[in-house]
Amino acid sequence: MGLSYLAYNREERDLCAHLFRLLLEDQPNWQPLKDFLDRDFIGSPQLFCEAAVIRDAYYARKPEKADDGEPGTINFLDGICDLIATMLEAAPDEYTRFSELQPETLRNPRLTHPKQIAYKLKESGAIQKPRDADVYGSLQAMFNAKPDLVICADNTLYIYEAKYTMPFDEAQLERTRLIGKVWAKLLYKDLGFEVEPDLVVRKLGLSKPDTKGYDPDISWKEVCEIANRYWLEDDYSMKVLQTAAQLCQN
């Protein structure tokens, strides 16, 4: 006899889908979302699952400067790489700006995707300055990364990294913080903010006191407790979250 997949599914994306459903309950009061964020007031929030904001913003820009004044892809990537360099404490003369990359194929979106630049620089021996690998390696990571849950509420940008059975990885969290800084600085209008928002990066996962890497800001057990206020016990999503909550007790 086979085991129920519900009992041993270890995919956090599956859990986040049920959490997403929970956070959308009770509109326009948004009480589950208020409980999750531990806030008394929520204006007009926006929620996103596995948000790839930099990737999608890149495809939304035109190759050249648009008539409406919005930057095209070249200016857009110049801005991102300049900000990455600043965050990595790379001086202006220590890295090559995107618009100055050589050969020209590296800055042609039809020939080179931004997440391929670091690889092509290394393989072709085209690295010109000492921090090029750092800057374009970070750009590659940002195009590949998709934070699990993003909430834009009032003037705060919340980014959640979710884990199910695995511990949190500080390198991944730092990468998420860098991504969040780019979003908050360069893409806040795309996310519905009028001014640069405050950035909050949080951990969602199993809580195991005194165990390294299992120190979430909110645990699946706490999520289950929130869900229990709004869903009946035989609700399918409730069952899924209860399974996760049980792991917190093991």
What does this protein structure show overall?
This protein has 250 residues and is α/β, with parallel strands linked by helices. It has helices at 5-8, 12-23, 31-37, 53-60, 73-87, 117-124, 132-144, 170-186, 220-227, 236-248; strands at 46-49, 149-153, 156-162, 198-205, 218-219. Strands 1-2-3-4-5 form a five-stranded mixed sheet. The longest helix is centred in the C-terminal third of the chain and has 17 residues, at 170-186. The two termini are 25 Å apart.
Which key phrases capture this entry?
250 residues; alpha/beta; 10 helices; 5 strands
How would you summarize this macromolecular structure in one to three sentences?
The chain is an alpha/beta fold. The protein has helices at residues 5-8, 12-23, 31-37, 53-60, 73-87, 117-124, 132-144, 170-186, 220-227, 236-248; strands at residues 46-49, 149-153, 156-162, 198-205, 218-219.
